[in-house]
């Protein structure tokens, strides 16, 4: 009995450091944000007042918030779809490669390895509307009459950012899908071939069931990351021009660090948190069903 | 499955929590001590100095001054940390909440007002008196003044003037413009052969469009703030100014400039891709570094006027000061070190790091042989005179009504830049966009009152 109690204590002792870190990094910001979202907290002012849900009402009645929210949703869906299609295709192609597979894999993963600041500066330079390589190339090839303004034309900028995000995120999907593909036993394909299954049937009945849980989890993670993506957009366009690329995280940043209204900024992030929790719950329900089906 | 569900939720929470604001206590107040009386005692302690002199030569001079100070005061340690102005602003505003601010720092005049408002800095009147109050320009001192006390000490000054390319004007047989109409005509005429007449920058991460609009509005005798410190973007002067710069954007500017910040804008001129630009004497070192062959072709003139016989004016002067933070445990060391930066030799060496870019904030420097012997200062003597004159006439943006938090917010929120972007990108009517921006600014002003 004594030993059991001792074992219980030591168990807690081992997880204590992790609990402290999680508490400090996760629980405290959540609670402080919840609290500040109910106050007039200002970044540089020492005093503030408790205003209950006034910040939430103010944000939910701001057209700018809904616009940012719609842009965030569109940004997430388009980026995610593009990343999955490109990443998935690249993984399938790479899975078939027999020679220099490692070299190709390294080359394809390169975009993912770059820090955001490098990616942002490089694309800003490549797409610069005066001296950028791509706009000048398009003009010199006769494909455009004037220099295309990829980062300042309201009708081009969002698509350009989506393209950059797909280029950046697809390798991560590729590597994970490739790993999942490599775990599928080859004898299943051989048996299917003997039974006369077509390539499409093999893909549908062997490949897809094996990798769908991995893809599902990737989608969950990427949804959270892409929806919360801040650095890439902020560094390239700052949310402009005319808020055409202002997503909810940039809206929250401008509120907190621009106007310094931390109370309102906290309220935005709490709304963001609630939305992401709902999305994740739905995703996990789907993955859970897949797992049950597999069993 | 439950475990994974939980870990997924925790991941979502963790990622979302990275965006949330952080709170904390404000720093404790500390009274400044008398610099003179402290001098007799041996200085002992460690201080941190944040400055924004990111370019090599200026950084080196400051480091050398700190090394000399530490040699003379062996019990003192000075830690120098360097940030760009943008990073500096984020750093001190966030640092203030957690008490993570330096002992002393440089600042922009608009920052100083916010710092005073947040009770984050202490008066430096004793240091100013020690150096000689009458050696500083009254306007420069007044930018850091509250309730009769000076909270900042000017380190150097500069002002915005119009820069042009002599060779391009000569080739097109054009005179240096004196009015905005002449400027627009010349800029349009020079927009050819891969050169833009003038870039109009309105990236929302910088204050450039506010700066350009302020030039026009000030030249028309108006202001972007009313006397009772409300935003004033719907006045006739402001609407005319907005329309003027939209015309320049449409006819003479690269379309990409809708996202330009200060460096994007300056780089075009440095590389010889714009015929006109508006900047301080920092333009010289920029051109010298990037396009040395163009250095003989650049010059500056006073900002254009509405009518040629309108009185001379200065639209934007920047007196860059230093401040001592209330959190500092050793204000006496900060002040003693600051004083050494004004020693004639050190100060002249500091200014020479960006000749003509940084003009002396105190008298008795510009007439010394050492200062005058600088090659760039000799070469650009007439330009320096023009900038000096503009320094005397101008104020920081919005400071024509005296230092105010509103003036700082006018430039730091990107609202005017957003207004221009809205008109350019969405085709919003000028008056409608101006009214919306004015209302937005007034709403932000109200939040700090």
UniProtKB/TrEMBL annotation, chain A:
**Where is it located?**
Cell membrane
User: Which chain regions cross the lipid bilayer?
Assistant: 12-31, 68-94, 106-126, 146-168, 208-227, 265-284
UniProt keyword annotations, A-Z:
Cell membrane, Membrane, Transmembrane, Transmembrane helix, Transport
A single Pfam family it belongs to is: BPD_transp_1
- How is this protein situated with respect to the membrane? Multi-pass membrane protein
**CDD domains in the record:** TM_PBP2
Q: Which GO terms describe its cellular component?
A: plasma membrane
The alphabetized list of GO BP terms reads: transmembrane transport
Q: Does the keyword Transmembrane apply?
A: yes
PANTHER family hit by this protein: BLR7065 PROTEIN, SPERMIDINE_PUTRESCINE TRANSPORT SYSTEM PERMEASE PROTEIN
Q: Can you tell me which family this protein belongs to?
A: Belongs to the binding-protein-dependent transport system permease family.
Name of the protein: ABC transporter, permease protein
User: What is the organism field in this record?
Assistant: Lachnoanaerobaculum saburreum DSM 3986
